[in-house]
Amino acid sequence: MCSNGISKLVFTILSAVTEAERDRIRERVATIKADQRQRCRYHSEKVPFGFRVGAHGELVADPDQQETVPCAQKVRP
After folding, report:
1. d(Cα 62, Cα 48) in Å, to the nearest integer?
2. Which of 36-47 are b and which e, b meaning 16 or more Cβ less than 10 Å from the residue's Cβ?
3. 3-state secondary structure the chain
4. Which of 8, 26, 44, 62 is deepest in the core (most CB within 10 A)?
5. Residues 21-53: pLDDT tens digits?
6. Which pTM does this prediction carry?
7. How far apart are CA 59 and CA 18, in angstroms?
8. What residues does each domain of the chain span?
9. Between residues 4 and 73, which one has the greater pLDDT?
10. Rounded to the nearest 5 degrees, what angle is found at the Cα of 72, between the Cα atoms of 69 and 73?
11. Nearest-angstrom CA–CA distance, 42 and 52
């Protein structure tokens, strides 16, 4: 019986530590995204068509793909 109480205590403590770590990760990610946004840097995984990520992390128009954009817009209903 005693080990059941101890196991529950350990599980509760580990759950609290895990929740606190998730909160810290969430705060760090939000801080990094805000910093990147402030510096006008692109911070998403998928780069929009017609652009590429520049040397300093900003979106730069890709001339080859930009030629295709007007044609693609005409096709949309």
Report:
1. 10
2. eeeeeebeeeee
3. CHHHHHHHHHHHHHHHHHHHHHHHHHHHHHHHHHHHHHCCCCCCCCCCCCEEECCCCCEEECHHHHHHHHHHHHHCC
4. 62
5. 999 999 999 998 888 888 777 777 787 777 888
6. 0.54
7. 36
8. 1-38, 41-77
9. 4
10. 85
11. 10
Distance separating alpha carbons of residues 77 and 66, to the nearest angstrom = 20
Tokens of 59: 């979106």
Mean pLDDT of the 13-23 span: 97
Structure tokens at 6: 């101890």
Q: What is the Cα gyration radius of the chain? A: 24
Residue type for 61, please? A
Question: In this structure, what token pair is assigned to residue 1?
Answer: 């019986």
Alpha-carbon gap, residue 7 to 61, rounded angstroms: 58
